[in-house]
């Protein structure tokens, strides 16, 4: 049986900024229009955290039973390494999804926006079929698009909507920025795994684009948030505070552009996530006070 430490590593804690950042950005946007609600904000954060841990376990399970994780370069895979039974990892994933559904239902009851149940169900299905099912869309180069939608647009705008009952132009810019950051994290992950994914037949976007174009895509994605900061800054000059997070990208950009491969790319995922988190905190402050 896997140890507690192995279960924690299998949850891929380094991906949590992808869940935390959009909630922070959406909450900042809500505060900016005097609609901050701590209860629904915390529930939204709980939903996001449970979903990302659930999708990490689901990916571990689905990739593990397909055999695509046996030669993986990155962090521990519970199923692929044999540390945990596939059924246990699958059950852990669905337990996280179930708890996320309960937290989401609490939001719906508090806000009265019952149509959000459909959005929640779509998020859970998207999390499972990323690598699950007979035709996982993550194996067809659509992972980055899904991450942009779910951990960018849906997470940021959803966090604002459940607090304010509306969305704003600023929040759309923030959602595009966070979605781009999240997609960049996945691009870096899949760039690292191109050799093993080619070997196992997993067609991620990085496999389809190839090494050079994947690196170009990463650079473009991490620059999009700062373009959004400039656009938001035309109406709210405080948004330019987000540029204070740019130095956090110096090392990951140098790593990716410099042609690093394999394990050398692992810190890039962490560093990109931290830059996303810093950008979101600074932008949330700007939206709240601007």
UniProtKB/TrEMBL annotation:
Pathway membership: Quinol/quinone metabolism; menaquinone biosynthesis; menaquinol from 1,4-dihydroxy-2-naphthoate: step 1/2
Residues that span the membrane, as ranges: 39-58, 91-108, 114-130, 137-161, 167-188, 217-234, 240-260, 272-289
Q: Which Pfam families does this chain map to? A: UbiA
Q: Which domain of life is it from?
A: Bacteria
Main localization is: membrane
- Subcellular location(s) per record: Cell membrane; Membrane
Membrane topology is: Multi-pass membrane protein
Q: Which first-to-last residue range defines the signal peptide? A: none
Does the keyword Transmembrane belong to this entry? Answer: yes
Report the catalytic activity: an all-trans-polyprenyl diphosphate + 1,4-dihydroxy-2-naphthoate + H(+) = a 2-demethylmenaquinol + CO2 + diphosphate
Q: What's an example GO cellular component term for this entry?
A: plasma membrane
Q: What are the record keywords, sorted? A: Cell membrane, Membrane, Menaquinone biosynthesis, Transferase, Transmembrane, Transmembrane helix
Query: Keyword Cell membrane: yes or no?
Result: yes
InterPro entries according to UniProt: MenA (IPR004657), UbiA_prenyltransferase (IPR000537), UbiA_sf (IPR044878), UBIAD1 (IPR026046)
A GO term, aspect molecular function: 1,4-dihydroxy-2-naphthoate polyprenyltransferase activity
According to its UniProt entry, the protein's GO biological process terms are: menaquinone biosynthetic process; vitamin K biosynthetic process
Instruction: State the NCBIfam families in the record.
Output: menA (TIGR00751), PRK06080.1-3 (NF004751)
Family the UniProt entry places it in: Belongs to the MenA family. Type 1 subfamily.
Function field: Conversion of 1,4-dihydroxy-2-naphthoate (DHNA) to demethylmenaquinone (DMK).
| Record's protein name | 1,4-dihydroxy-2-naphthoate octaprenyltransferase
Source organism: Saccharopolyspora rectivirgula
* Gene name, Swiss-Prot/TrEMBL: menA
């Amino acid at each position: 049986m896997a140890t507690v430490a192995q279960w924690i590593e299998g949850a891929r804690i380094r991906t949590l900024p992808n869940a935390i950042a959009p909630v922070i950005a959406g909450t900042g946007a809500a505060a900016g229009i005097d609609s901050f609600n701590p209860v629904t904000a915390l529930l939204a954060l709980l939903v996001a955290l449970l979903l990302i841990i659930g999708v990490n376990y689901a990916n571990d399970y689905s990739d593990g039973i397909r055999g695509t994780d046996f030669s993986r370069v990155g962090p521990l895979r519970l199923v692929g390494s044999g540390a945990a039974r596939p059924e246990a990892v699958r059950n852990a994933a669905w337990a996280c999804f179930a708890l996320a559904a309960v937290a989401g239902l609490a939001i719906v009851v508090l806000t009265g926006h019952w149509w959000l149940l459909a959005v929640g169900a779509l998020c859970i299905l998207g999390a499972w079929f990323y690598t699950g099912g007979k035709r996982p869309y993550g194996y067809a180069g659509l992972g980055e698009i899904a991450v942009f939608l779910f951990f960018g647009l849906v997470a940021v705008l959803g966090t604002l909507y459940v607090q304010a009952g509306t969305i704003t132009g600023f929040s759309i810019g923030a959602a595009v920025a966070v979605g781009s950051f999240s997609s960049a994290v996945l691009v870096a992950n899949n760039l690292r795994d191109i050799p093993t994914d080619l070997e196992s037949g997993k067609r991620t976007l990085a496999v389809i684009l190839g090494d050079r174009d994947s690196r170009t895509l990463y650079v473009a994605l991490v620059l999009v948030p700062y373009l959004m900061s400039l656009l938001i800054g035309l109406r709210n000059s405080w948004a330019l505070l987000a540029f204070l997070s740019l130095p956090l990208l110096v090392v990951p950009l140098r790593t990716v552009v410099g042609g690093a491969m394999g394990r050398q790319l692992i810190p890039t995922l962490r560093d990109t996530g931290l830059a996303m988190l810093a950008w979101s905190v600074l932008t949330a402050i700007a939206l709240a006070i601007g």
